Amino acid sequence: MPPTAAELIREQTLGPLVDHHTFALTAKEELLAWARETVRSLLKDRAESTRIDDTVLVVTELLTNAIEHAGGPVSLTLDLYEKGVTVGVVDRGRDTTVIPTAPVGIVAGLQDESAGSDKGEDMAEDGRGLFLVSAFATGWGVESVRDGKIVTAALCLAEGAA
Questions:
Q1: Rounded distance, CA 15 to CA 2, Å?
Q2: Could you count the other beta carbons within 10 Å of the beta carbon of residue 55?
Q3: SS3 call for 94
Q4: In a 10 Å sphere around its CB, with 0-12 CB exposed, 13-18 middle and 19+ buried, how is residue 131 labelled?
Q5: Which end of the chain is less congested by CB atoms within 10 angstroms, N or C?
Q6: Could you tell me if residue 113 is left (phi over 0), alpha (psi between -120 and 50 degrees) or otherwise beta?
Q7: 101 falls in which pLDDT band (50, 70, 90)?
């Protein structure tokens, strides 16, 4: 059983909660571009650019999964902690069993696959979002909520905070 959001946060060394943001994204034009810009803005001066990039990637993957697979309204929650951030994406999907079973090293495997073919033409373009979340987040989990599910990812942003 995957961890709940509360268990996920408790297992990380993120420090005290500093700020909380919730966004209803159903009416937003260019939703993914807006989300990337918003995350970058909120994390500016709080982390190194590579950790901000990791967080932006995780947010993009979680939102893309929610949009493509669950349909209906989506919301994004960003909780900023002293040493990290948690990202929550709520959608109307009910399937909480879609958990990657491949090792976190899948990113390396993708690079190996790509090197073996001309320009990576044989690589599937879909189905790797949660593997990327698993590879870049410090931890993540999925749980049922009243009208669907929430996928939560925690990322440590401070050096040595994992």
A1: 22
A2: 26
A3: coil
A4: buried
A5: N
A6: alpha
A7: very low
